[in-house]
Design brief:
heterodimer, A: alpha+beta, five-stranded antiparallel β-sheet, 5 helices, B: mainly beta, eleven-stranded mixed β-sheet, six-stranded mixed β-sheet, about 10% helix
């Protein structure tokens, strides 16, 4: 691969590494009593409130509907997800170092797989929290109602409008994926261009002849 | 790296941050003419008096509507240093209970007295929730005249709602307790804890009395409203915790799909009591009354109440199943519809009095509890308002066929039509509304022009004031098809419920001053010449007048450490709004505010020898700052004779003994206060 493609690939890996610091996803809740909103930031290794006590407030409110409290320590994914991201980043740098198209393709495939599983797992947790209600201890029981927050977009949950959007971490991951794809394409275009420049003199020569 | 790529990444990040920084601050747009609708020009009067409960301040606050201007705070169950209520010798008895003197309570519901189901402007009742009591406030003086304690009760929450002619006001227990309340294991709750519903005779001022109590199963009784028109003679009470949980009620009292509205046939109860079916039960409680002539409160200890067991009076109580821990129960102006506010319910159920009677006649019962028949829900329910919002609490009526229900969780007022049960309008309120109030909105004749929303949370509505924020009232115009928000104003304490009536009903009946000639206080001083100092053992009584701009006498000597001093001060002015105050250095109570023609007494136990100045605390006149004096305190056993000086004027009066001298108003030049 060209140097340029390899640099792009290395940059992609660094962007992936950004997901270690930036929030992957954000869930925001707005209710009449909470015009300022409550919210959660899901990081690769933890879940925190957007404002200092939001997580506590959300857990406090959720007890009304029998929802389990969100306890970051009880979510095993948050323990090993950072390592996956680190692995992905290291793998990306290795691919850039090696500079083979095949390693970049493999990296992208692995990335897509991990991303897909990640989203599915996130959805599974949301489903779990939204449906596994402690009917015995719930105070408000609305028949047929579940409180699964949306994966993407907005949804009304009683008096709360829940809006779920990717965070900067997910954007960084997406950007990394795009950059790596870009590296492949650049290399592809470049190879075509090289072929074209090699071909031209011959064509010109033929024409002159 | 191509610039394009960087630009692309930057754009992606920008989108993310834009999404992350999105904030939402809903701001209710007030329509253009709102200001003119609430503007009451200087010097003009408001259209309504509104009486707001002061919640944990223990008081009542009075506002003018539509301006939202505060007119007065009426002290009821709490000591009020601002005017000495609950501190003066004349008023302390008002705060006496069988538990001793209590300087505070938690007021919840104001209730105007009624005649033929319509507020009549005679009195305002209010309950004390913590130590169950009901107070009667006179509306010609805006003063608490009478407080009765409710025995065999704890948490007097469903109180003090009135029958249509104020024959009775009621008080039902929020907490069931052992009756009599003796040492009982808490786990014996189901077996031994009971509720009571008290009917308190209320139509004779100064003679409130517990007519009878109905013994109820050990649930929490929450709110109540009397029937009227066809349903006159009945009273409806919500109950929750029919699970009879005694711990973690939040969860354990929310399990049943339906709790009950207790329909109490009070006219029948009255008859059963008359027929001797109630049992005289030893129960101690106090009745505190202020005498009109002396303006001195006294406490009378009572020792027995009549308790009626519904088992001995069949047909006196029925249970109407009502969804999910109902809070408010409100009867529409026609007396036909009974609206339950199931605070966790997803509908607003409406019961019909006609159906109730038929269900009783047909014995459409679904079993019974403690001898009380449970009616079938469908046999009594006439309609359900579907999808009203979240957390319905209270309903009031406009007299034009519409009901307005407060929604705590979805923080809105929902207007719906009686008969079709359709929601026709809704308006957000800021935030988490509890009660709402339409003047006369719980009576036969609502003045359906305004609605007052009483909100629990104010957050971003006013300039912030640290962690503790004011609660709030919001005035909403309900004269048209659409509700319109007109005004926000902060309130004192927590305004649980409010009542209002047209100002014209009581405005011109206000007492302006107390006629000095009728002042029956034993220590009244009607003229300067009558003032003086007197010793009775260790007690020293000082009789003093206050007028613009002096006290007489104003130099006092002969008081010894160890004495208890009583300053009996009479404001001898006979002029509206000429008020004096009194305070003495180092006193450990509160100042006296003396209304014209009134005598008040401050008890003071000086701790050390010295000279103690006293002064007028209410800026009464141009020479208010000159209105002061001294009292000398000498060491115990000192040989200092009692002495009170006399003014020159007093001496003149003395000389003309017998003739009541009208004090000259030499210092009223400016009328400045």
């Amino acid at each position: 691969m060209s140097l340029r493609a390899r640099v792009l690939m290395a940059a992609a890996s660094l962007l992936v590494g950004g997901a270690l610091l930036l929030p992957l996803w954000e869930v925001r809740l707005i209710a009449p009593q909470y015009p300022e909103g409550l919210g959660l930031r899901i990081h690769v290794n933890t879940v925190v409130g957007i404002k200092p006590n939001d997580l506590q407030s959300i857990n406090g409110l959720n007890h009304y509907i029998g929802m389990k409290p969100i306890l970051p320590d009880a979510i095993p994914e948050l323990r090993w997800m950072p390592w996956i991201v680190v692995g992905l980043m290291v793998g990306g740098i290795a691919a850039a170092w090696r500079g083979s198209r095949r390693s970049v393709v493999a990296w992208l495939a692995g990335f897509a797989l991990i991303g897909g599983i990640g989203l599915w797992d996130f959805h599974r947790w949301e489903y779990e929290y939204g449906h596994d209600l402690d009917a015995e201890n719930a105070i408000i029981v609305v028949p047929g109602m579940n409180y699964e927050p949306p994966l993407l977009g907005s949804k009304q949950l009683l008096n709360f409008t829940a809006t779920s959007l990717p965070g900067t971490g997910a954007i960084a991951l997406g950007a990394g994926f795009l950059l790596a794809t870009g590296a492949l394409l650049t290399n592809h275009r470049r190879r075509r261009a090289v072929r074209a420049t090699h071909a031209m003199p011959r064509a010109v020569a033929a024409a002159k002849a | 790296m191509p610039y394009r790529t960087i630009r692309f990444i930057a754009a992606l990040l920008a989108v993310t941050f834009a999404a992350a920084c999105r904030t939402s601050t809903p701001q209710q747009l007030v329509s253009g003419d709102a200001a003119s609708k609430v503007y009451v020009a200087p010097g003009h009067y408001d259209e309504f008096y509104a009486f707001l409960s002061g919640g944990y301040s223990g008081n009542v606050s009075v506002y003018g509507l539509p301006s939202g201007r505060m007119l007065k705070i009426i002290p009821v169950f709490s000591q009020f240093p601002e005017n000495g209520y609950g501190y003066t010798q004349e008023t302390r008895a008002m705060l006496q209970t069988t538990f001793g003197e209590i300087p505070w309570d938690d007021t919840h519901h104001t209730e105007l007295s009624q005649t033929n189901g319509v507020p009549d402007g005679r009195w305002l009742f209010i309950n004390g929730n913590n130590t169950p009591r009901i107070a009667r406030i006179d509306l010609t003086r805006f003063e608490t005249d009478e407080i009765i304690q409710i025995p065999n009760s704890a948490g007097g929450h469903a109180s003090p709602f009135t029958t249509p002619n104020s024959e009775y006001v009621v008080s039902a227990t929020r907490f069931s307790v052992p009756i009599p309340n003796t040492d009982t294991p808490i786990e014996d709750f189901k077996a031994r804890f009971k509720g009571t519903i008290s009917f308190i005779r209320a139509d004779q001022p100064g003679k409130m009395d517990i007519a009878f109590q109905i013994l109820m199963p050990g649930y929490d009784y929450d709110l109540g409203h009397a029937g009227k028109g066809p349903s006159d003679g009945w009273f409806f009470f919500t109950s929750y915790d029919t699970e009879q949980a005694y711990t973690k009620l939040e969860v354990n009292a929310s399990k049943n799909d339906k709790d009950f509205i207790a329909a109490v046939h009070w006219k029948l109860a009255e008859q059963c009591v008359k027929d001797g079916k109630a049992k005289a039960t030893p129960s101690a409680y106090l009745h505190n009354v202020t005498d009109e002539r002396t303006r001195i409160a006294t406490s009378e200890r009572k020792t027995s109440v009549l308790i009626l067991d519904p088992a001995n009076c069949p047909g006196v109580v029925y249970f109407i199943p009502t969804p999910k821990s109902p809070h408010g129960v409100d009867v529409d102006p026609t007396g036909e519809y009974i609206v339950g506010g199931g605070k966790l319910a997803t509908v607003i159920p409406v019961h019909s009095f006609t159906k109730l009677q038929k269900a009783i006649a047909d014995k459409a019962f679904d079993g019974e509890l403690s001898g009380i028949p449970i009616l079938k829900y469908e046999a009594v329910m006439v309609g359900e308002v579907q999808k009203p919002g979240l957390g319905p609490l209270h309903t009031e009526f406009d007299g034009k066929g519409y009901a307005y229900t407060s929604m705590f969780i979805s923080s809105e007022v929902v207007k719906w039509k009686l008969g079709t049960w359709e929601v026709v309008d809704r308006i957000p309120v800021y935030y988490s509304i509890g009660h709402l109030m339409i003047p006369g909105g719980d009576s036969k004749q609502p003045w359906g022009k305004y609605l007052l929303a009483l909100d629990k949370i104010t957050k971003d509505r006013y300039l912030p004031t640290g962690p503790e924020l004011a609660q709030s009232a919001q005035l909403i115009d309900i004269s048209g098809d659409k509700m319109k928000l007109l005004l926000d104003f902060p309130t004192t304490g927590e305004p649980h419920y409010a009542q209002a009536l047209p100002a014209a009903m009581i405005r011109d009946k206000q007492v302006k001053f107390f006629t000095l000639a009728n002042n029956g206080n034993p220590y009244v001083t009607r003229s300067e010449a009558e003032g003086g100092i007197e010793r009775k053992g260790k007690a020293v009584h000082i009789k003093m007048i206050a007028m613009r701009s002096h006290f007489t006498p104003d130099n006092l000597e002969g008081v010894l450490v160890g004495d208890t001093v009583y300053f009996h001060i009479t404001n001898i002015e006979q002029d509206w709004d000429i008020v004096h105050g009194f305070a003495v250095l180092g006193m450990n109570t509160a100042n006296l505010i003396l209304l014209p023609g009134e005598t008040r007494t401050l008890k003071w136990v000086p701790q050390a020898a010295g000279v103690y100045p006293f002064y007028c605390t209410d800026f009464c006149s141009a020479l208010h700052q000159e209105m002061q004096g001294y009292i000398r305190v000498s060491a115990a056993g000192a040989n200092v004779p009692l002495k009170a000086n006399m003014s020159a004027r007093a001496k003149t009066q003395e000389a003309r003994k017998g003739a009541l001298v009208v004090p000259a108003r030499h210092d009223q030049m400016t009328g400045m206060r």
